[in-house]
Amino acid sequence: MPHESMNIDELAKYLKQDARDVQKLASKGTIPGKKVGGEWRFHRNEINYWIESNLHSHENETLIHFESHAPIECEKGLLVSKLLGEACIASPLKASTRASVLKELVALLEQSWQVYDPVAIHAALVEREGRASTALAGGIAIPHPHHPIKNTLGESVVALGIVPNGIPFGAPDGKLTSVFFLVCCVDDKTHLQVLARLTRLFRREGFLDALRDSTSQADLWHLIRQTELSLMLPS
After folding, report:
1. pLDDT confidence of 96, banded at 50, 70, 90?
2. Would you call 39 helix, strand, or coil by DSSP?
3. Model pTM?
4. pLDDT tens digits, 163-220
5. Strands laid side by side in the 140-141 sheet
6. Structural domains in the chain, sorted by start
7. How does strand 140-141 pair with strand 135-136?
8. Element (H, E) at 90
9. Within 13 Å and on the Cβ side, how many CA atoms surround 84?
10. CA nearest 194: which of 114, 82, 60, 47?
């Protein structure tokens, strides 16, 4: 894949930051990279993993920048609601443990008819959770493979499962997790786009409470669509 490695200037453009600030972060070890022949080099996969692990700390302007890395041609700039079909939504999700959540989410994802190898996707989710939990503060989690897996998907897809009472999922605040967005994309750029968009959705006042309060697939999908549309309006 082209452009897997970036220098300081390329990474600064990618992150929409000043090159001097990026160099300072690299020198401190905050950004993953290494020096080759005295010059900093950064691997795109490692940078994307670092970005996704720190999305919650980025300003909305930066998240919008990440969303623009791979523009998707869809109605009115919709992204999550484009990749999430009503058939891939379950509230309640019939799961009571961390393992059963992943299993049921993959089964839910199969309703998209875009899943070619559910076994490989499930194994990738388990491997990713083994690295670090995808749970965030606030009772939400975004399970996803560490990297796109070849020959497992027709198109990028999202599934949503809600466990009303919540379960332990390794959240940083130590609380239970009840809202699970499973994200499986065919490429890294779309993956980063979706994670950035979800992060902005989660910040919308009342959005997560509204998700938890609904049990209708249609109502949940329309809620996500309308909230996404509100993100497109001028602030």
Report:
1. very high
2. strand
3. 0.81
4. 999 999 999 899 999 999 999 999 888 888 898 899 889 989 999 999 999 989 999 9
5. 84-90, 157-167, 177-184, 140-141, 135-136
6. 5-53 (1.10.10), 75-231 (3.40.930.10)
7. antiparallel
8. strand 84-90
9. 27
10. 82
